[in-house]
Amino acid sequence: MPVKDYIRERFFPHIWCAGCGHGTVLNGLIRAVEKLGISKNDIVMVSGIGCSSRVSGYLDFHTLHTLHGRALAFAAGVKLGRPDLNVIVPMGDGDALAIGGNHFIHAARRNIDVTALIMNNRIYGMTGGQYSPLSGRGILATTAPFSNIDQSFDVVELATAAGATFVARATTYHVQETIEIIQEAILHKGFSVVEIMSQCPTYFGRKNRQGDAVAMLKRMREIVLPIGAKAKHGDPEIIERGIFVRKDRPEYCAEYDDIIRRAMKRK
Amino acid sequence: MKGTVRFVQGNEACVEGALYAGLKFFAGYPITPSTEIAEHLSLRLPEIGGKFIQMEDEIASMCAIIGASLTGCKVMTATSGPGFSLMQEALGYAIMTEIPCVIVNVQRGGPSTGIPTHVSQGDVNQARWGTHGDHSIVALTASNHQDVFAMTVEAFNISETYRTPVVLLLDEVVGHMRERLVIPEAGEIPIVERLKTSVREGVDYHPYLPREDGRLPMSDFGGVHRDNVTGLYHDMWGFPSDDPSVVHGLIRHLIDKIENQTNYLTRYKEVGVEDADCLLISYGSSARSARHVVENRRRRGERYGLLELQTLWPFPHELVRSKCANARYIIVVEMNTGQVCQTVRLAVDRPERVFLANRIDGEFITPTDIQGMLHLIQGKGL
Amino acid sequence: MERSRFVFSGSGGQGVITAAIILGEAAVLYENLNAVQTQVYGAAARGGATRSDLIISDSEIWFPKVVQPNVLVCLTQEAYNKYSPIIRPGGLLIVDAHHVQIGRRVDAVQKELPIYQTVIDKIGEPIVFNVCMLGAVTALTGVVQPVSIMKALKARVRKDLLGVNRQALDLGLELGGKAA
C-alpha cells in the first residue's frame, strides 16, 4: 500500500516545526506497518499530549488522543478489551517518563502486549522548551536558565529494570534501522519499548547551540553507535543503539485469559 | 418481586446491579470504603468472560475503563473521595469524548485522607464540578440495597443512552451495611445496550454527528470505521478544531444533552409530600434517618413528608420547586455543610423556609439529630 | 413481632461480625424477615474492640444503627465496660463467663454463660466460639429458628467444618436453654 494510504490527508499539513524529527518517526512507523502488512483496522494508536502525541491523529488507524502521560493507562483498557488488536503508543519523553512515569513502569511490569515508542527530543516542545526528565544535567531550557541540575533517566535501563521484555534504542538518523526495530517491537508478544532519539532544533538545538536539524542529525550519527561501542571506545559521550532486551515472559492478556478459563471452570 | 434473595453489603448490591446491566470491564484501585466492589468483581467478572484489572492508581483506572469502553464493553470503576479526586482529569475526558462509563464513589469524610472508615456526603459538588471547564454530569444516589441495584442499572442505561459518564454517589453506610437484596430475574428491568452505527464500510462515518433523536451511534475500535477520539474540541469526525462555531457547538451539545433531559433523568421517591407541612429532602443513607422521622411523625398524625432525591445532577429544580410549594418548612437532611441545601434554596420560591439538618463529624446522622433541628426551627416560632 | 436490636461486641478475631451476619442471613434468607447489619470499621477490625449491630424486624427498617440494644452480647471485658451502659433498660445482656466479670449496676437481665469454656472442653477449638454464642442467643431470644441458622451456616462454611459448627450451635442452644 502506498504511504499516503496510511495518513489522514484531512489533517495535513502537520503541526511540527521544520526540521523536527517526529515526522521521520511517523514515516518509519508507516513503513514498519506496511512491511508487516497489518490491516489498518487492526491497529489502535493511543497517544498522550505533546508534539509526539499528534502522530496518532495523522494516521488512518483507530486513534485515541488522550491525556498528558496517561496514554499507556488508556492503552491497557483498549488492549484488555480487544487483545487481538495491535496497540501502539507513541509518546514524548516528558509524556512517557515525567507525568506518565508511573504508568510506564507498571505497563512494563505487567508485560502487557503494547508497543511503546518514546520519541525522545529531551525537551518539552509543545509548551516552548522546558527541561524534561531526559534533558540531562547541564542542559539549558526555558525553565533551566542557569543550566539543568536534574539528572536524566536512561530509558533503556529503566524499561529493562521495570520488566519490559523488548527494549531498544533507535534514532531519526538511522532510519532503516528504526523501521526494522519498530517492526520487531510490534511483532514482539509483550511490552516493548523503543526509544527513538529525535531532534528538536527549535528549542533544544537553539537553546543548547547544537545548530540546525542537519547538525543535530550529524551529531547523532557521531555519538549514537551500535551496542558494544561504549566499551570499545571508552568514550562517556557515546550512546548505544540497537536491541538491548528481547525475552519471553508471560504476557498479561494471555495470563488473564487463563484466569477466565479457571474462573469459568470453577463456576 | 421474583428473584434471588441475598443478604449483602450495598457494595455487593452495586456489583450485582452492574453485572445485571452487562458490565464486562472493571479497573480500580483499593480504597476504603469501596474496596468490596473491586474484590467481588475480581471474582465475578472472569466467570462471565469479563475482565478485572487492579491498576497502579485511580488515574490509570479511570483511563483504562475509557479505553475498554471504546472496544465496545460496558465499563465501571469504583472509588472513594481521594481516588475520585484523582479521577477528575479522565472524567473530564470521558465527558468531552462522550464515552459511556460508570464511576461509583462510595463517599467517606474529606477533604484529603479525611476519615476513611466513616460516612460523609461531602462529594456532591465535587461530582458536579470536580473536573475543570464548563460541563454537565449525571449523578445518582440510593439509600437502600434494592435502590443501589436499581440505580446502578440506571447508571449504565443513562450512560449508554446519552453517551456520558454517570457518577453513582453511594456512601459508607449504604456501601458497608448488609440488608435484603432481591436480584430480579433477567428481563425484569430493561437494559439499554450500546447503540452501534449502521453505517457500512467505505461510507463516511461521523462519530460526533448526533442522529435526529440526539443519540450518537458508536463504532468500536477494531471495527470498519477508523475514527479519532480526542479530548480537544473536535468536529463531527472527531478531528481537532479551534473553529469558534465548532467549539461553541460542542460545548452547548455537551451541556444541553444532559440539562435539557433533566425531566427524563430525574429519579426520586416520596412519602406524604402532598399534604406535608414539614417537608424533609434527603438522599443516600441520610434519607433512611429522614424516613424514620417522617414515618414516626405521620403515625402520630403530623403532616410530615419526605422527598428522596435519587438524581442529584442534573439537579431537578422544577421537581423540587413544585414539591416544596406548599410546605411551611423544608429541611434538607445531609451529611455535609449543605451542598444540596444550597441548591434547594436556589430552586424554591421562598428560600428562607429551607433549613439544614446535618452532621459533619463522621458519624451517621440519626433521627434524634433531625428531631433536634426540628425543635430548633419550631422554637423560632416560624 | 417486636423489633429486635442486637449489638454483638468483643475483640477482633472472635467472629462477632460473622455471627451478626449469620443471624441476619438466617432471618432474611430463611424466615423472610427484614434485617440490617452494620459494623464498626477501621483498626478495630484487625484486633481491639469490635462491634456489629443487627436489627431484625418483620416491618421495614429505616435507621440502620442500634442506639439502645435490647440484646447485647459482650465477649470481652473491654466490650462489656464500653457497651453495657447503652443497653435498653430491662434488656438481655449475654456475656462470656471466661472473658467477662460482670458489674452489678447494669439495668438488664445479665446472663453469664460458659460459652468459651464449653467450646474448649467439648470441641477443643475456639474457632466456633461465635457459633456457640449464636446458639445461646437463639435459645434465649427465639428471634429465629435454630434450623435457619443451620441453613445459613451450610451456605457459608466449608463442608469439612460443618460438623463442628453444628456441634457448636447445639452446645450454645443447650447453654441458652438452661439459662432461660
Automatic annotation (TrEMBL), chain A:
Listed GO biological process terms:
cellular respiration; small molecule metabolic process
Q: Domain Thiamine pyrophosphate enzyme TPP-binding: where?
A: 49-196
Source domain of life:
Bacteria
One Gene Ontology MF term: oxidoreductase activity, acting on the aldehyde or oxo group of donors, iron-sulfur protein as acceptor
Provide the alphabetized UniProt keywords.
Oxidoreductase
Oxidoreductase among keywords: yes
Keyword Oxidoreductase found = yes
Entries under Gene3D superfamilies matching the protein: 3.40.50.970
InterPro entries, sorted? 2-oxoacid:Fd_oxidoreductase, THDP-binding, TPP_enzyme_TPP-bd
Protein's recorded name = 2-oxoacid:ferredoxin oxidoreductase subunit beta
**What lineage, starting at the top, does this entry show?**
Bacteria, Pseudomonadati, Thermodesulfobacteriota, Desulfomonilia, Desulfomonilales
UniProtKB/TrEMBL annotation, chain B:
Q: Which SUPFAM superfamilies match?
A: Thiamin diphosphate-binding fold (THDP-binding) (SSF52518), TK C-terminal domain-like (SSF52922)
The keyword Chloroplast belongs to this UniProt entry's keyword annotation = no
Give the InterPro entries listed for this entry: 2-oxoacid_oxidoreductase, PFOR_II, Pyrv_Fd/Flavodoxin_OxRdtase_N, THDP-binding, Transketo_C/PFOR_II
Q: Which residues form the Pyruvate:ferredoxin oxidoreductase core domain?
A: 276-370
Lineage: superkingdom:
Bacteria
CDD domains linked to this entry: TPP_PYR_PFOR_IOR-alpha_like
Tell whether Flavoprotein is among the UniProt keywords.
no
Q: Where is the Pyruvate flavodoxin/ferredoxin oxidoreductase pyrimidine binding domain?
A: 16-195
Q: Which Pfam families match?
A: PFOR_II (PF17147), POR_N (PF01855)
Gene3D superfamilies of this UniProt entry?
Answer: 3.40.50.920, 3.40.50.970
Any one GO MF annotation of this record: oxidoreductase activity
Tell me the keywords, alphabetical order: Oxidoreductase
Q: Which PANTHER family match?
A: SUBUNIT OF PYRUVATE:FLAVODOXIN OXIDOREDUCTASE (PTHR43088:SF1), SUBUNIT OF PYRUVATE:FLAVODOXIN OXIDOREDUCTASE-RELATED (PTHR43088)
Quote the protein name from its UniProt record: 2-oxoacid:acceptor oxidoreductase subunit alpha
From TrEMBL, chain C:
Q: Pyruvate/ketoisovalerate oxidoreductase catalytic domain: which residues?
A: 12-174
Alphabetical list of Gene3D superfamilies matching this protein: Pyruvate-ferredoxin oxidoreductase, PFOR, domain III
The record, for SUPFAM superfamilies, names: Pyruvate-ferredoxin oxidoreductase, PFOR, domain III
Q: Which residues cross the membrane?
A: 127-149
Q: Which UniProt keywords apply?
A: Membrane, Oxidoreductase, Transmembrane, Transmembrane helix
In Gene Ontology terms, what is one molecular function of this protein? Answer: oxidoreductase activity, acting on the aldehyde or oxo group of donors
Show the InterPro entries listed in the entry: 2-oxoglutarate_synth_KorC, Pyrv/ketoisovalerate_OxRed_cat, Pyrv_flavodox_OxRed_cen
Coiled-coil segments: none
Q: Carries keyword Oxidoreductase? A: yes
Tell me which Pfam families the record gives. Answer: POR
Per its UniProt record, what PANTHER family does this chain match? Answer: 2-OXOGLUTARATE SYNTHASE SUBUNIT KORC
User: Mind telling me what this protein is named?
Assistant: 2-oxoacid:acceptor oxidoreductase family protein
The source organism is Desulfomonile tiedjei
